[in-house]
Fold:
Amino acid sequence: MNRIFFRFFMLVMLSITAATFVIYFTMSRLFGDPLEDIARRQASAQIFLIEQYVDAAPTDEWLTRLNRAREVSDTRYDLVTLARARTFLPATSLGALERGEVVLDVGNKSFYRRVDLTGERYIGSDDEVIHARNLPIDIGLALQMEAVRYVIVALALLAPIALWSRAHWQGLQTLSRVADEFGAGKLSARARMRSSRSIYPLAERIDLMADRIEQLLVSQKNLLHSVSHELRTPIARLEFALELLHDRADDPALRARIAAMEGDVTELNSLVNELLGMARLDSEQALPMQSVDLGVLLRTVESGLPPGAQRLALDCPDGLGRVKADPRLLKRALSNLLRNAQKYAAQDIRLSARSDGSRITIAVEDDGPGIPEDERERIFEPFYRLDRSRDRATGGFGLGLSIARKAVLLHGGTLAVEASPLGGARFVVTLPQG
Ligand code: ADP
Structure:
């Protein structure tokens, strides 16, 4: 809120400042310097004295009147030569001085004016200039008034901008909460904003989009679940029929064909089971959570693995702590990662765990071929496999990692993959400690 408000306020103030300068320079160009105008008004009495009293003197009395004016005034009136006066003034003012006009020097609180143009006052007066100093010019006061005006405008703008940003900010916060919840899998999250709110049209579209996505996902899950479920019975019948056939067939070639078909049906069966497992995970609302000793759980997962040709090193310090977990599901996720490591490792697999007090990090790594950088997100998608020929030999469906990630997410954790120092892939699970 503060950031949006502050930025917008700064932008408005910058615009007002820029407009102030533009107005000042435009006015100076078109109608003369406004500050000089103010200074001329402040020095008007002294200018009046020269023009209406001293200049009105009969010939030869001009100097006498000037001296009288000197006596009664705080302003100093000096006579300087035209050549000297020229050195004090900028080039732009010299024309006015030559024409006999009053030329102000605002910074030095003074003005210059030629005594006369024709030398009528006294001998040589056409070559002299009155230099009036100590004039009661105070531009500071005028600038202070401008500054006060500026501050009042700023404060007057501050209140509506604060109200405006607050209204927008609350709406944006609601939308970002909905996006976070929806992204985290809570498909029922909606903004449900009042139609009077300024960002209602946007919120309404986001809600509609969420409705459609939810419908699509639900129908997709239902379809997956129903199809997998419906496949179970015919598969079971096929298994039974093939077993009967296998027992009755005398021809060894036929028996071998039937055995191969039995293998295919078993594969089909395990695919359907995996799919059903995944569908169950998707519809899982609340897991049967309990406090689990992570060290014990990791050792159980390790010992439950089928024996493999590679070396498996377990690097798990004592007192690793406990996590809130559904042990069955967490074991499944970790054993999926370990089974993959067994499939792809050349010689070495390492299962390690660390705690930083608030989060526990579990890493499963191997010295296999690893995962190319641009595939590291895609391998978590269902049915995504890297090298199909290689994987057919390893016999996976491309569901293991997707199930593992779903399971870890349901525990409030994350699962990602990176390169391992061992040379292969390193799957990293982080879980909140609890
Ligand atoms: P699968 O059941 O086919 O193993 P997964 O979802 O478990 O499916 O894995 C998806 C793909 O990710 C695999 O087909 C494989 O190409 C790749 N993969 C998974 N684990 C590893 C690993 N440890 N090393 C190299 N590639 C891996």
The radius of gyration is 45 Å.
